[in-house]
C-alpha cells in the first residue's frame, strides 16, 4: 500500500529524511515513534504529498506520489489525515465540517453527504453533536469529529500525527478507542504517537526514527521489551 525506496528529503541544507526504506501493507497498523524533530511528521506528510520528497521513490496505493502527472486531489481522496490540532472549521457545525469534502471533492449530494456524516458521527460516538460548533466541544470530541471527517471520504489509508498529544489526559482514551476500532476493521493506518498502550494493543509494527533515519522496524513486544538500537533504548528510558 505504501512503499518508500531510498527516500531522501531536504529542507534547504537540512537533511530531514535520510534514506527511508519502508513498506506498509494493506490493513497494517504502523506506529512511528522517535524524538521531537526526528522527521516523523515530515515522513507522514510525504505520504499524502503535503511535502514532496527530494530523492528516491514513494508509491502509495499504486501511485508514484511525486510523479508530475498525478492528480493531487484525486490522489488525496484515498489518504485521510488527522492532525494534533484538529483543524476543524470554527464557523461550521460538526456536520458541515464532515460534509464539506464529500460535497466539494466527491461531488456527493448534500443529502447523501449528510447521511454519510451522520454514519461516521455515530461511529465515533457523538451523533448528538451534529449541530454544535467545534468551540462547543471538548478536545477529545473535536478530535473524534476530525477522524469522522477523514473517514467520510472513504480513504484506503489514514494518517495520524500525534492525534492525542494536545488532549487533556482524560480525553486520550476516547480518541484511542475510536482508532483501535478502526484498526480492527482493517484500515491501513500510519500513526505517529508515543501512546504505548495503543501501540502494544494494535500496532503490527513499530518504526523508530531518529535524525531522519529508520533505526528500528520491529514488532511492539520486541520494541518495548528489548529495543536493539541504543538510541531507541535511550529514548524509551526517557518517555516511559
Ligand atoms: P517531528 O515530527 O519528528 O518532530 P518534523 O518532521 O516536524 O519532526 O521536523 C523534522 C525537522 O525538520 C525539524 O528539525 C524541523 O525543524 C524541520 N522542519 C520541519 N518542517 C520544516 C520546514 N517546512 N522548513 C524547514 N525545516 C523544517
Ligand atoms: Mg511532528
UniProtKB/TrEMBL annotation:
<protein>
    <submittedName>
        <fullName>Amino acid ABC transporter ATP-binding protein</fullName>
    </submittedName>
</protein>
<dbReference type="InterPro" id="IPR050086">
    <property type="entry name" value="MetN_ABC_transporter-like"/>
</dbReference>
<comment type="similarity">
    <text>Belongs to the ABC transporter superfamily.</text>
</comment>
<dbReference type="InterPro" id="IPR003593">
    <property type="entry name" value="AAA+_ATPase"/>
</dbReference>
<dbReference type="InterPro" id="IPR027417">
    <property type="entry name" value="P-loop_NTPase"/>
</dbReference>
<dbReference type="InterPro" id="IPR003439">
    <property type="entry name" value="ABC_transporter-like_ATP-bd"/>
</dbReference>
<keyword id="KW-0547">Nucleotide-binding</keyword>
<keyword id="KW-0813">Transport</keyword>
<dbReference type="GO" id="GO:0005524">
    <property type="term" value="F:ATP binding"/>
</dbReference>
<dbReference type="Pfam" id="PF00005">
    <property type="entry name" value="ABC_tran"/>
</dbReference>
<dbReference type="InterPro" id="IPR030679">
    <property type="entry name" value="ABC_ATPase_HisP-typ"/>
</dbReference>
<feature type="domain" description="ABC transporter">
    <location>
        <begin position="2"/>
        <end position="236"/>
    </location>
</feature>
<dbReference type="InterPro" id="IPR017871">
    <property type="entry name" value="ABC_transporter-like_CS"/>
</dbReference>
<keyword id="KW-0067">ATP-binding</keyword>
